[in-house]
Amino acid sequence: DVKVTQSSRYLVKRTGEKVFLECVQDMDHENMFWYRQDPGLGLRLIYFSYDVKMKEKGDIPEGYSVSREKKERFSLILESASTNQTSMYLCASSPLDRSTQYFGPGTRLTVL
Amino acid sequence: AQSVTQPDIHITVSEGASLELRCNYSYGATPYLFWYVQSPGQGLQLLLKYFSGDTLVQGIKGFEAEFKRSQSSFNLRKPSVHWSDAAEYFCAVGAANAGKSTFGDGTTLTVKP
Fold first, then answer.
1. What's the first-to-final CA gap in chain B, in angstroms?
2. Inter-residue contact B21 to B13 (CB < 8 Å)
3. Is A9 exposed, middle or buried (0-12, 13-18, 19+ CB in 10 A)?
4. Which among A36, A51, A104, B60 could bridge A91 via Cys, Cβ 3.0 to 4.6 Å?
5. Residues 26-85, chain A: which have Cβ within 8 Å of B?
6. Alpha-carbon distance A64 to A55, whole Å?
7. How confident is the model over A31-85, as pLDDT tens digits?
8. Which chain A residue has the Cα nearest residue B105?
9. What are B19's strand-pairing partners?
10. Scanning every residue of chain B, which has its alpha carbon at the shortest distance from the alpha carbon of A95?
């Protein structure tokens, strides 16, 4: 089975802190994605990556950056966390044909 | 641009009753369509997907969905709901070479005993 793991299930940070969310997949998938999920807004794509060192902006990239130095790992970075970035963050990966996405359990981030 | 509408924010059904969750999409070409389920505190799990061929698609946990091009719909059905089906359900649309999917806002299913 495909496994996508996220470094933390719950995270509490203060405004202005730099925050790293890590995601690792074990199926050698080329594509990886970061979403945020908010009540009533569904899933919104922040960034995605087709390959190592490659990234593309999604629908809401402002305030975020990403890093993909190794194929299995995709990091989401909040350079200076703000309270409006309090949310559930979901990581996903998919194989080269870009079909089914496999999701991690999510990280619930609270910014105080 | 592609989009997905799930008209029902919340649905309540009795255990054993049938279920239909609606999904309408907007996409210029033949879409890839997905239904995912999210249990509380968990990530999303794929229930089923449609790429081409037979428009009635069978998935896991006894779910099925039917692609109707004329109605731009991909509704999810289950003939008899179990209490463990209580969750949030997301419909998504993607394309073969677009690399990303667009998700609906989700429908929360409550199952009454």
1. 41
2. no
3. exposed
4. A104
5. 31, 33, 35, 40-43, 45, 48, 50, 56, 58
6. 12
7. 999 999 998 888 999 999 988 989 999 989 999 999 999 999 999 999 999 999 9
8. A42
9. B78
10. B99
